[in-house]
Design goal:
By secondary structure, the chain is an alpha+beta fold. It folds into two domains: 98 residues, no CATH class; 193 residues, Sandwich (Immunoglobulin-like), CATH 2.60.40. It is built from seven helices and 13 strands. A six-stranded mixed β-sheet has the order 4-7-2-1-9-12, with no helix packed on it. The protein has a four-stranded antiparallel β-sheet with strand order 8-13-10-11, with no helix packed on it. The chain has a three-stranded antiparallel β-sheet with strand order 3-6-5, covered by helices on one side. Helix 1 runs antiparallel to helix 2 and helix 6 crosses helix 7. The termini are far apart.
Length: 315
């Protein structure tokens, strides 16, 4: 027994050290070892949380051969913190810092954490609305128009959707808006503009996330297409510097247009993309600014899972 106790104490000390200093894969491996769980049992526990991850993937994660990046994998990391009895955000924090250059580590980790927090909050808001992320609809086309106001704030976002139902009975869409840091969802307003009306609205103050039902007043059958348009009036945060669009599943065409107010024009704008919230940004491309129309845009012919957006620098 003394030998077993000593071994447990060493494992606990190694885990504490790994959680403080990382990296992610070392902390994960130490946590699994400290709990004495084989990977098959870890996989079984994850399935009880509704998360599917293969034993091979878990092995790669704890070896450092791969990192969790996809939305499903990031949900698995949150579940692992509970399964392995770890402090909340302990693995997420280490994952945020992985593979980041020292000069950008703090801002990248903060950006990553905000995306993860918003993702977790969104899951809870959707549950309150009795809805799922995909909602039985496949996106054929999505055009977003973001308006930046005179105070350089995100003033409004308008969305035009073209969708097709892939099951019978779909009669609503859950619109999600993520405000900039410091935004106040309780002061945002949802406007149903075309072929829909506003239903229940849920808000989360700390992360600036708003989720709203848009009711179609008709029940779609499998294969039916539908067009609708809505807007979210924001203007509750400070200076805006980027707009990011994220999706869990591939879709049709996506277009993003960012429009600026006269007297509050950016110095330069660029496109960027991320495979996941944990991945570094890539696909940078300078965007030509239309002085006459005071706008920039990007078009993705076919959306992939991940993030795409436009960022801009102020004078």
């Amino acid at each position: 027994m003394p030998h077993a106790t000593q071994h447990a104490d060493v494992a606990t000390a190694e885990l504490d050290s790994a959680l403080r200093g990382g990296p992610f894969h070392v902390a994960l491996r130490a946590a699994i070892a400290a709990r004495g769980l084989p990977l098959q049992r870890v996989q079984h526990h994850l399935s009880r949380y509704g998360v599917r991850v293969g034993v091979t993937s878990l092995s790669y994660w704890q070896q450092g051969a791969r990192r969790p990046q996809r939305p499903e994998s990031l949900r698995a990391v949150r579940a692992l913190e509970e399964i392995l009895q770890l402090p909340e955000e302990s693995l997420i924090r280490l994952l945020a810092e992985a593979d980041e250059r020292p000069a950008n580590r703090r801002s990248a980790a903060r950006s990553y954490r905000s995306l993860i927090e918003a993702s977790g909050v969104l899951e809870r808001l959707l549950a309150e609305l009795g809805a799922h992320r995909e909602g039985g609809l496949h996106t054929l086309g999505h055009h977003e128009r973001v308006r930046i106001g005179a105070r350089r704030e995100l003033a409004e976002r308008e969305s035009h959707h073209i969708v097709r139902a892939h099951r019978d009975g779909v009669d609503r869409f859950i619109a999600v808006h993520r405000g900039d840091p410091g935004s106040a969802p309780d002061r945002m307003t949802v406007h149903a503009l075309e072929n829909c009306r506003t239903g229940r609205v849920r808000r989360h103050q700390d992360t600036g996330v708003l989720a709203a039902e848009l009711l179609f007043d008709t029940r779609l059958r499998t294969g039916d297409t539908f067009l609708f348009r809505y807007a979210v009036e924001d203007g509750t945060a400070g200076v805006s510097r980027e707009y990011v669009h994220g999706t869990d599943s591939p879709g049709g065409q996506y277009a993003l247009q960012v429009c600026f107010t006269a007297g509050a024009l950016p110095a330069r704008c660029h496109r960027f993309a991320q495979h996941s919230a944990a991945a570094p940004r890539g696909g940078r491309q300078e965007l030509a600014f239309s002085g006459r129309h005071r706008s920039v845009h990007l078009v993705e012919p076919r959306v992939r899972s991940g993030y795409v957006g436009i960022a801009w620098d102020w004078e």
